[in-house]
Amino acid sequence: MSAVDESNWTTAVRDRAVDAFPPTELLPDRQPAYVASWAYVFGMLSLVSLLVVIATGCVLAVEGPSWWHNSGTGHFVNSMHLWSVELFFVFMVLHLWAKFFMAAWRGHRQMTWMSGAIAFVVSIGAAFTGYLSQQNFSSQWISSEAKDGLNAAGVGSYFNVLNFGQMFTWHVVLLPLCITLLVVGHVLMVRRRGVVEPFDDDTVATVATVASTETHVDPKPASAVAE
Amino acid sequence: MSARRRGRREITKWAGPTRPYDLVKEFVYCLVAVTLLTVVCAAVFSSPDERPVSLEQWAQADPHDFVLTAVAELGGTSGTAGYGPPYNSASDGQKIGPLSLPKIAGVHIPINTARDLVITPLGLISASSPDLQQSIATWDASSPAQQATWTDAYATAADAATFDVNGLPTGISGDVGPVSTMMNALVTMARNGGLDGALSTEKGFYNNDYTKPMLFLGDGGFMEGKATAQHLGGDQWGMMNEVGNYPGQAWLWLYTVWYQVPPFKTSGNADALIWGLMMVFTALFVLLPFIPGLRAVPKRLRVYRVIWRDHYHDKS
């Protein structure tokens, strides 16, 4: 058997990936017993809603931005795109509230919370540019109103909501790419760190353990095992 | 200690009781459910699609408002003419205290309302009209003070005028110079649909930038009147609404709510102040895990006892 070549980048990346995300944690068939609430399903519902948003958006993109104004089929696909966005936000807001009530950032999960929060903010931008890309009266009025806010913030010089071409490319390329990367990272962090444990009501120290240090001691050592 | 060290971070894993879980099945079930729900919503509620307004519609439906707006663009007294950055340097733009972010960002989308929205479009049709050609030449050769005298006089006369079937003001008199000829040509061009095309295609055959016609429309009352009638005005929760009975961008409620209450409702710097406020809120939201006090709120609310009720029931 040949020795491991430590200078091989491919081997190093593969080993680190498998070490960080072993298949049993990436696609688990068991989970902690406390994960037994409907509150947990909103994360998955947000994810699949995003997939429906992207799928319907891809269909609209194939035919171009004017198609849905002149085609019954196109209008129906646009309606699906609109309602999947509405559902996406409903599920995402419920997911965020559930995670807030769980204080889901505990146990070194701050980045998981932050990636989800940033994904929410970027999603608002993606939906906003979608409204600007409709090429109808709503687009006109929303862009006319929104320009003042963006100009007042100094953003309007580089993000011109009255420029359809610019808003359209942000909507169909840049922002979906950002959201996809954020959501993939968010899901991988959830899989890597697991679902946050319930509060130990015998102590309030759990809330104060978010700061990460070398000498951190888990407040519930009895319930944790080494990987 | 039951943890694995990874650099500065450590990962602890639950070692208590577990239950069977099928991630793929949950994914498929959710995907099917959401897809079906989306199809049902689309079939039942459809989606709004009200045609955009145009300069042509405006000049036909309300020539009085169109002419007064157009002469304000020519005279440099319109909202866009005095807007400041990113369109021009007529003002500093809105401020947060002494800080003017628009001024720092600078003029990146230069708009000269007289030149870009009136004179250049008229130049496209002046070849067939010696009178218009002469009027534009007279305008260009005159001083700013003289131009202001003409546009002021014309605006006063047009405001009191009646408009004929062609959308032209009648009985215009006084020291209006070449303005009357220019405005009549512009109204006629707009009513024929020529102005929409002229403002949208000045950079060539293809166009994706509607900044100029949108600023022109925004300076008048036609588009705003239509929006207000549909409950889309700034003081009617503005852009988070949508035409018809659709939910719109309900997630913008926290941004829109500030426009409905003092002091923002009456402030000349409302947009800048509200954007500043929303940036603070966004930072608090994203950085919540690091903010003492705020991060302890869930523990005190005890809503988690509902979410994990089985867990606490089993423990007790």
What is shown here, in short?
The complex is a heterodimer of chains A (227) and B (316). Chain A has 227 residues and is mainly alpha-helical.
Essential attributes:
heterodimer, A: 227 residues, mainly alpha, 63% helix, B: 316 residues, two-stranded antiparallel sheet
Report mean pLDDT of chain A, rounded to a whole number: 88
Strand order of the largest sheet of chain B: 1-2
How many DSSP helices of chain B? 16
- Which of globular, elongated, flat, extended, rod-shaped describes the shape of chain B? elongated
Describe the structure.
The complex is a heterodimer of chains A (227) and B (316). Chain A has 227 residues and is an all-alpha fold. Chain A has 8 helices and 2 strands; from the N terminus they run H-H-E-H-H-H-H-H-H-E. In chain A, helix 3 runs antiparallel to helix 5. The C terminus of chain A is likely disordered. Chain B has 316 residues and is mostly helical. The N terminus of chain B is likely disordered. The two termini of chain B are 26 Å apart. In chain B, helix 2 packs across helix 3 and helix 3 crosses helix 8. The interface between A and B is large, with 111 and 106 residues.
